[in-house]
Design brief:
This protein is an all-alpha fold. The protein is about 65% helix and about 0% strand. It has helices at about 20-55, 80-85, 90-120, 130-135, 145-155, 165, 175-185, 190-200, 205-215, 215-230, 235-240, 250-255, 265-285, 290-295. It is flat, with a radius of gyration of 27 Å. It starts with 17 loop residues before the first helix and ends in a 5-residue tail after the last helix.
Length: about 300
């Protein structure tokens, strides 16, 4: 059965024939199939390191770098039990230490950065543009430039070997990226919300707490996820300020499995590495939709 094509009126496109329609549908299916194949290949490439780590956690240490197969030729389930108690402290101590620092860092960043962002986005004060530009300029400073001055300050305050150097900066809105993220989100909210709150007698803080904050949950969730991942995986800060093993975080604990004399317990290290990744993966999966919404959207429409 074929489709007859009549002469279209001037300015009207001719109707599509059956052959051209089927050809177009076939081309669309081929492009879609090719796109799915490429995505599957890319996903396999990205997942391979994780699968290799899981496989290595189930191998004896002597086979980790000799048996490259993802399916272990010799299984060693004891890596998890032995790795849990192999260090000076049970691994649960390091997990709890990291969890405490992460939770307090998230609270500090959400409170301080949201207040700073509210001031830049919704309030009018002298020098606002100048201070905002200076704040953005701090994003260009390498962290190593501030390393020595910060260490001297914390040493003068007698905060070494404590969690204060890792936590206090988060309560002082020192991360310009999170402030900028929240500023851009708050600027997209209608100004009429502030006017309505002002008519009802609400001050700036009440407007922020009751009106602006509930609408900024996607931006807050994005900040919380980024903070969780960065603080949980941070190695240099705890290495610089912490000396007692009882205060070590997970990255420092994993470093203890590596022996400079060649007696490293690779199987146990990979087993504990996989356990330490579980909270990050779970937190990311739980907040993924908020992360996408916080980055992709610009506020109310």
């Amino acid at each position: 059965m074929s489709i007859t094509v009549k002469e279209p009126p001037p300015g009207v496109k001719p109707k599509e024939t059956e052959d051209s329609y089927l050809e177009r549908q076939g081309s669309t299916r081929r492009r879609r199939f090719l796109r799915h194949v490429l995505l599957c290949v890319a996903g396999a490439v990205m997942l391979y390191p994780l699968m290799w780590m899981i496989s290595s956690s189930l191998k004896p240490s002597r086979l980790v770098f000799t048996d490259l197969s993802l399916w272990p030729s010799e299984w060693d389930w004891g890596n998890y039990a032995e790795g849990w108690t192999a260090l000076e402290q049970p691994f649960s101590v390091y997990l709890i230490n990291s969890a405490v620092i992460v939770v307090l860092s998230i609270v500090g960043n959400l409170l301080s950065c949201s207040l700073a962002a509210y001031g830049f986005a919704r309030l009018n004060f002298t020098g606002r543009k100048l201070f905002f530009t200076l704040m953005l300029g701090t994003m260009m400073l390498p962290g190593h430039v501030l390393l020595v001055p910060q260490y001297i300050v914390f040493a003068k305050l007698d905060w070494l070997n404590t969690y204060y150097p890792l936590l206090v900066p988060n309560f002082l809105a020192t991360n310009a990226f999170y402030i900028f993220l929240m500023v851009q989100f708050m600027r997209s909210l209608p100004k009429e919300l502030d006017d309505a709150a002002r008519i009802d007698g609400a001050g700036p803080f009440r407007t922020f707490w009751s009106v602006i904050m509930p609408l900024c949950m996607p931006a807050f969730a994005t900040t919380a996820i980024f903070t969780f991942i960065s603080v949980w995986n941070e190695f240099f800060g705890p290495l610089l300020y912490l000396t007692d093993s009882e205060l070590y975080t997970v990255p420092l604990a994993l470093r203890q499995f590596i022996d400079s004399e060649g007696q490293s317990q690779w199987g146990q290290m990979f087993a504990m590495s996989f356990l330490s990744l579980a909270p990050v993966i779970g937190f990311f999966i739980a907040g993924q939709k908020y992360l996408v919404k916080g980055i992709a959207t610009t506020g109310l429409k």
